[in-house]
């Protein structure tokens, strides 16, 4: 049933017919089932777990692990998880046009396919795109 629509909801039956070898009578097997085709809202906003990633302090040279787990993921239209770094230019986090000064560090789909610094030439795989080290 390609491209199912609401009109396709209903009862269906699979019927198999064969002839009995002894007397030529038809032997019928069947299985009935119901299909509901429901409207789906595409693009449910992902919800990030409360308190994440949170503020961190570290000593120079230490690793910092940032976690941004999603509480709700619509797997039929999975989100991209991106890590960006905000920076000041001329003493401000905002550019003259009002945009935010930021650098893309990585962007990943939830299947773990990532790009580094927005460069599609540098594609790699991570175990969990919701964690950046």
Features:
two-stranded antiparallel sheet, four-stranded antiparallel β-sheet, mainly beta, 2 domains, 10 strands, Immunoglobulin-like
Can you offer a commentary on this structure?
- This protein has 133 residues and is mainly beta.
- It folds into 2 domains: 30 residues, no CATH class; 86 residues, Immunoglobulin-like, CATH 2.60.40.10.
- The chain contains no helices and 10 strands.
- Strand 7 and strand 8 form a beta hairpin.
- The mean pLDDT is 76.
Q: Biggest sheet: strands, sense, closure? A: 4 strands, antiparallel
- CATH arch. level architecture of the largest domain: Sandwich
- Radius of gyration, in angstroms, nearest whole number: 27 Å
- Fraction of helical residues: under 10%
Report strand order across the widest sheet: 6-7-8-9
CATH superfamily of the largest domain: Immunoglobulins
Structural class, by secondary structure, is mainly beta
Mean pLDDT: 76
Backbone shape: elongated
N/C terminus separation? 45 Å
CATH class of the largest domain: Mainly Beta
Number of separate strands: 10
How many H/I helices? 0
User: What's the domain count?
Assistant: 2
Write the layout of secondary structure elements.
Layout: E1 10-19, E2 26-35, E3 47-48, E4 66-67, E5 70-72, E6 80-86, E7 102-109, E8 113-116, E9 119-125, E10 131-132
Antiparallel strand pairs: 1-2, 3-5, 4-10, 6-7, 7-8, 8-9
Quick description:
Helix content is 0%, strand content 41%.
């Amino acid at each position: 049933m390609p491209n199912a629509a609401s009109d396709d909801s209903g009862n269906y039956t699979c019927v198999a017919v064969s002839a009995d070898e002894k007397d030529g009578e038809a032997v019928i097997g069947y299985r009935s089932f119901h299909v509901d085709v429901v409207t789906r809202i595409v693009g449910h906003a992902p919800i990030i777990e409360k308190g994440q990633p949170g503020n961190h302090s570290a000593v120079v040279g230490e690793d910092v692990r940032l976690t941004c787990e999603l509480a709700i993921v619509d797997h039929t239209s999975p989100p991209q998880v991106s890590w960006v770094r905000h920076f000041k230019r001329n003493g401000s986090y905002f550019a003259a046009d009002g945009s935010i000064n930021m650098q893309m560090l990585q962007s990943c789909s939830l299947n773990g396919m990532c790009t580094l610094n927005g460069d599609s030439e540098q594609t790699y795989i991570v175990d969990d795109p919701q964690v950046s080290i």
